[in-house]
Structures are given as C-alpha cells and as structure tokens.
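Q: Protein A?
A:
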Amino acid sequence: MDSVLKKNFSYLFLLQNVNYLVPLLLIPYLTRTLGVENFGKIAFAQAFVTYFTLLTDYGFNFSSTQEVVKSHDNKVELSKIYWSTTVTKLILAFAGLIIFLLLILIVPKLQQLYPVLLIAFIAVFSTILFPIWLFQGLEKMSHITWFNVVPKIFVLGFTFLLVRQQSDYLLAIFLQSAAGFLSGIACTLLILHRKTVKFYLPSRSDIRVSLKEGWHFFVSGLATNFYTTTNTVVLGLLTSNATVGIFSASEKIIRAVINLFGTIHQVTFPRINKYYHESKEKALAFGSKVLQFMALGTLVTGILIFVFAPWIVKILFGLPQYAETIIILKISSILPLFALCNGVMAYLIMITFGLKRYLTRVVGLGGIFNLLVIVPAILLYQAEGVAVVAILSEVVITIYLLYIFRKHAIRLKWEWPVSKI
C-alpha cells in the first residue's frame, strides 16, 4: 500500500470508525435510559429516513467520485461536477421531503411517530453538505475527517449530560442528527475557504447528465435497501417497537462491522480505476487482493462475534431486556462476510471493468428475493426471520456475481499468505 493510499485509508478509517463507534458507545447508555420501546422508535425512524437519504445520495458517491478522479487536475471541470452534483442532490432532497410529509399524513403508524421522524429527516440535508465523494476522488480525506470527528465526540458528551430519562428519546435523536448537519456545514465552509472549486451554475443539461451517470448506482442502492433497511421498516410495521429495538441492537453491531471494513473498498475505488487505465491485469490483481483481505478479515470477525455474542449483548445492551438479541446476533455474524465480499466484487471490480449494466440486475435479484420472503419470515419467526433472510439474500447475490465473472472471463487471483494491498 503506497503512502497516499495508506494515508487516505487511515483518515477514512478514522472517519467511519467515529461514525459507527460513537453510536456503539452510546448504545449501553441509551438502551438502558430510553428503554426497549423508545430505542425501537429511534431505530425505526432512522431506518425509514434512510430511503430519503438514499434518494438524495442517488448514486453520486460512486458516479461523482469517478468523474472527480478523471478531472482532479481541471478546476473548471471539477467545479462543474461539484455544483451539478450538489444542486441535483438539493432538488432530490426537497422532492423527498414532499413525499415524506405526504406519507406521514396518510400512514397511521407514521403519524404516531411523526416527531421522531421529522427530527431524523435532518440527516437527509446533512448528506448534501458533506460531499465525501469529492474528497474520495481527490484522495484528500484528511480535509474532512476532523470536521466529522469532532461534532460526533461532542454528541457523546452532550448525550450523557442531557439525556436522562425515557422521555428524552427525541433529544437523543436530535443530538445525533444535528452532529451530521454541523459536520456538513463545516465541510462546505472548508471547500469555499480553500477555493477547492469555483462557483458554477449548473444547467438543466448538467443535472440530467448527473442523474444519468448515477442512475445505475441509485437503482442498485435502492435494491440493496430492499434487503437492508426495508427489513427494519417492515418489521416495525408488522410487529412492535420493542421487537424493532431487539433486532436493531444486533443490526447496529453488524452494520458497524460492515461499515468499518467497507472503508477499504471506499478508499481503493479511486485507485483501482487508476490502475485499470494503466493495465487491466494490474487492476484485477489489486481487486483480488482487496477481496481476499476482506474475506479473511470478515470471516475472523464473524467467528469472534458468534462466540462472544452473549457477552457483547450483556455489555452493550443489558440482560435480560435484550436476551433475544443474542440469537439474532449469532445468526447475523456471517452477514459481513457475504455483504462485504459482494461489495468488492460488484462495486470495486465489476464496475471498474465496464460491467456497470449488471449492477442493477445483481442487487435487484437480491432485493426481489428479499421482498418475496420477508413478510412470511417475519410472521413466522419475527426478528430471527429477518436475520436469516438478510443472509440468504446476500448468498443469492454472491452466486450471481460469480456467474457474471465466469461469463466475462474475470478470473480472480488468489494468493496465500495474503500480501499487502
């Protein structure tokens, strides 16, 4: 791993760690202070708002990153990419807000939770102000890391200081949402202060191009949502807030692991694109190393989670309130292995090798499978059923990805022992 890649990995690793470790540090306090019911309300609200975050992000975290990689030395083109992406995200956010408010008006379950849902929606606007795609493409992650880290640490302190009883659950989610929004404001001010880009007023044509470039990534993200966030939302609609709280306790741990390791393919995405323009063989060798490292790391982590699940749940959430979380966490311990290896194969290798057209089919297959079985699984097995369905959906995707690789003669190169990336 060269010095630039190592530096960017370190900063993004720190960034993702804070994004997910701060909530994990808060969990032991919040689960005990707010209770299972209110913890479930927050989990449901955050899961539901994820749909609108996904709409606003569209597919720009990949499509705009690719464009930035191509134009990082051209300030005029870079400015065009930045403002076209930002304005498009703003339009999508307001369109999402209208849909969001209409759903609250017509769905009884959402009407009951409207205060927590409205506060959670702040996260949607935070994604506009925090263009991680720009700095990933420029391979300058240090510029935004501290603006993200410091507010999260303040959230930790203010939560312990201000959230004192079960009725404080609205304050708890507000503090979490506000941190992301403040990070975004600070990041935008940094871009303007350093004159990273010039002002550019995007045309309708620029916005159409942005939407077109991100379409495949958006659809794939939407389909992925069918077997991730949708599971929590459906569980909340068919069962109780307490059941959502039990499931979400396990989900937060598993998603923290996925996002922690996901740092690797976020950092290596710009680099494999550069290697591809030099040599397909070099890019494939690099992608294979990333995949092998990911598989080994997540396998070991999954085994540790399975073995120590009772202690993890006891320390983070408390017993006996969250006793049912133990079996869900054990079932889900293998999920990071499939989810992250699928991410490397689909987003890192398949897209780089010009097979973006398959992305929608791949995640669409997993999403359709999930939608077909999730309701019966919840009705029969509740939260445990959700955990099993999530794993089976990833296995279906793995099988289809390997079929695509074989069809297009993409032969992964395995080495043992694993060499450095």
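Q: Protein B?
A:
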Amino acid sequence: MFYIFEVMKSIVLYPKKLGNRIYFSMIALLLASFLFIGISTFYNFKSQNIEYHNNRLQRKEAATLSSIAYYLSERTVSLSDSSIYESFKYKLDELADIHSLDLIVYNLEGDLLLNATKDVKQPEFLRSNLEVSVIEDLTKSRARLTKILKTNGHEYLNSYQFLYDTNSLPFAIISIPYFQLNESYKRDLQAYFIALTPIYLLLFLITSLFAFLLSKQISEPIVKLSSVMQEAALAKQYMPLSWNSADEVGRLVKHYNFMVKELQISSEKLAQKEKESAWKGMAKQVAHEIKNPLTPMKLNIQMFERKINPQDPEFPIKIKKFTSSLIKQIDTLANIASAFSDFARMPSSKKKSLNLSEVVDKTISFYDSLSTGELTIAKDCFVYADHDQIVRVLNNLISNAIECVRTGETPLITIILEKRKGHALLSITDNGSGIPEKQQSQIFEPNFTTKSSGTGLGLAMVKRIIDDLNGGLYFTTELGIGTTFYVSIPLLKQKV
C-alpha cells in the first residue's frame, strides 16, 4: 500500500518528470501487450473453434452423404414421384436424428424441395431459395462449399454440396446449417480469461514495481547531476561527479567531468587576466588617490620651511596648525589605504547558510538614527553567503542613506526585507536629495564618488559582493525626495 501511495503521489505531483514519463511509457507498453494478447487470444480461439466445428461438420456431413449415396444407389431418383419423395424425406429425417443435423434439399435452380430440421425453428434460417452466388460457386468448383452466415446477430456455419444420381449427375443441392459454432469457444474463452486474470494482475503489479524502480534508477543520476550543477552554480565552484557504472549515464558523467576540468582551467586563466587588469586599474586609482593629499602636504611643508621663525610669538600656534594639517592628510591616506585593502580582500569569502533576517535586525540596531524610520523584516530569509560581507553591504548602504540626507534634516530611513519569487529582497530608502540623472550610470564604478572625502569604492564593493551571490543590485531615485537601493539574493532551499 505504501508503494502504491508513493507512486500515485509522485505521478500526481510531478507528471512531467523524466522518471514518471518512463514509468508511464512502460505501463502503457505493458497494457498494450495485454490488449494485444487478449485480441490475439480471442481470434485464435475463434479460428480454432471454426476449424474444429468445420471438421466436425465435415465428418457428420461425410457420414450423412455416404448414407444418402447408398440409399440412392438402390433406386432411381425422381423427386417428382410422391412415393419416392416421401421415402427420401423419411430417410432425411432418419439421418437428421442420427447425426443431430438439419438437412435442407434444394433443386438445381435453388428452390426448396424438402427439409429435415431440428434446430431451425425460425423461418429466416430456412430459406425458400438459395442465393445465386452459392449455386454459381458450386457449379464452378463441383466441390463442397462452406460459408459462415449471420442472421439476426446469430453466426452459424453452413455447407453446400450436390447430390448425385447413379449416373453421377447432380440432381439436387443439400444445405446443412450448423448452429453449435458459438457455444463452446465463448465458454472456453471466458474460462481462459478468468483463469489468467490473477496471473495478469500479479504480472501487472510486479512489472509496475519494476518499472517504477527502473525509472528511478534511470532518473536519479540525472537528478543528482542537476543538483550538483545547481550547487556548483550557487557556490561558483566546479564540482566533479562520481559514477561507477560504464553505462550511458557514466559516459555523460565522464564528459561532464571533462568539461568541468576544462572550464575550471579556462576560468582560472580568465580570472588571472581579470585580476591583473583589475590590479592595474587599482594601482592607477591608488596612485591617484594618494597623490591628492600628498600635493597639499608638500606645499605646506615648503611654505612652513620658508616662513619658519622660532622667535615669532605665534610660533607654537603655527606649529600646532601645521601638524594638525599634516595629521588630517595622513588620516586621509590611512582611510584610502584601508578602503583599498578592504576592496582587495573581497574574493576571500566563507559562505554558509545564513539567516539574513537576523543579520539585518542585528546590524540596524547599531544605528540610532533609524529610530524614526519604518522597519519591516520577514522571518527566516535563509541565503548562502558570507556573514561579514553581508554586514559590510548593510553598513555601506545604511551609512550612504544617512549621509545623503541634507544638513539640518533628520534621517528617515525605511528598511524592508521580504521574500519574493525565490529571492530575499532588501530595500533601503532614504529621504535625501536623490541622484542626478548624469551620475546614475556611474554610481557603481570603483572610482566614482559624490563625497569630497570618499574613495568611490563602497558601492563598487557592494556590487561585487552581490554579484558573487548571483544576486542583483539596483536603485530607484527621485530628485528632492530620495533614493531606494534594492538588494536581491537567492533564497536557500531548506530541507524539511
């Protein structure tokens, strides 16, 4: 019962799965074979029945005609003579009783002369005239003629032969209908099918179980291959498969592993080229960012060197101002170095199953300025990601949302986390001034910033993190009203 329940559940829930299609095909083939066997058995029984009864009729007919021939050999036949007619009719009745046959005699033109019938009760079976085709076929063949006739839905066998006189000339046609044709074979066929029904049912159950197991055996490697490929795509890793059998699936796995190896080599080469190109661009950007604070530092030192006078009463004040300026420039350099260091450490991530709802809730608790904004967090949004990188994304987007608010205004930040179409969708809305249209296409570029002290790496870093998770990062903005950043990350399917 459990097996039947599992099979029906799988068929109803997943009718288009490969395994179910294989199962359906095998069951359909089995049922078609049962139908073919049934039809073949029916026609075989019917043909054997006709052959059996034809032989039986032929034996009875031969005995009857032999008796008639012996009877006719002793006297001259003239059916127009009433005495001979009565004598011949008596002989027909006698033979009909002996052999349990119906005997009907027609003249050569096909007109009914006399009959000795036991089973022919209805007039439609006792025809007053023979068909012309029967007379013509008898005349051509001069041999026994057998036909299967059907009257009022009743099928029966009928034989025709000439009756010959002592001079071997035909003088009449004898018709012998045989009504036992349908009696035995239908009864035998019914008994045969009743006897085979339990065997067919057992065979159907065994074959159905075998078909189900075979379909699972065929489809499971493909399902496993699909699952591994999905996990590899999610983790951005190339994971080879193992398959011990040298069958078609084994060859497929072998080719898949070969392609995985080739793709891994190609991706490593491509990654190396991209890394070299990125570091070249990074080096230019670092040089540019470091050069900016170094120039005013050099000018300040040269000016201080020319104007230094220890005897000046304001000397301590100028020294303090000079050192304060240098410290600010050094802090700027340190911030630049830290930002580029964080950006460079991006690829080393430790992904695992992560409850994004808890991370968002804990992260925003550190921002007191969000107390006036709206907060909606869906429960149990599990994603496959690195915890520290997600925190970095949240800190960057929330900090940007707070900093973009105009001076003197209270930050009103709205954060919503929801589940939508297999993804966790996080939206962070601010009440800032919005992003001008000219700057919107550059917002995620590594060297673009709207802040005087920014490095332009924050949103670029966020973009790289989200792309690495096969997610999406986009925004909508309206000047004078604010901007909403959307982060979409695929939800991790939880095993029940």
